[in-house]
Prior knowledge:
heterodimer; A: 7-stranded mixed β-sheet; 11 strands; 0% helix; globular; B: mainly beta; 9 strands
Amino acid sequence: EVQLVESGGGLIQPGGSLRLSCVASGFSVDSKYMSWVRQALGKGPEWVSFLYSGGASYYADSVKGRFTISRDNSKNTIYLQMSSLRAEDTAVYYCGSSPSQQHVMDWGQGTLVTVSS
Amino acid sequence: SYVLTQPPSVSVAPGQTARITCGGNNIGGKSVAWYQQKPGQAPVLVIYYDSDRPSGIPERISASNSGNTATLTISRVEAGDEADYYCQVWVDTSDHVVFGGGTRLTVL
């Protein structure tokens, strides 16, 4: 059974940095397309980043240059390093996995990031 | 950038059929996914590759995609179907993912 568990969220001041983690079980993170999707309160989901099984990474324009997705195969974990955080980055961040980049098959429960002074 | 347009809300009586549309430029040429999200929960994939259902999703939920509109159809609507529904595509020219704005399905 696929399971994704996010952690690392919290309250952070504008301009600060935070690293989110997503521990996967039931599969290897280097065998699937891994993604981060965020959702602000009362809004729809917004795609943030993809990490392809081959290692290529892609980012939404709103986070490009500030966020970095990576993985540690030995820990079966993917990360989202977030820097230069802004108030508009406040959201629940979900980790996702899929055998295809065309959809997100499985989702974690999410971790809340609040950017505020 | 590619835009997906959904109606904000759809209402239907129990036992009837709900149809939720998702408009996009030549969306029929893309692969559409649909997600169901209930309050306080993560989204759940209910349709992928335009019309395939993941295991555990009832056959009452179906979808089609052609031209400039994709449609999610929920037959014999139940109270438990009340949720927000989002369409989503992958834009191959930019390797970006786009979500629609969402449709709240209300069961009267």
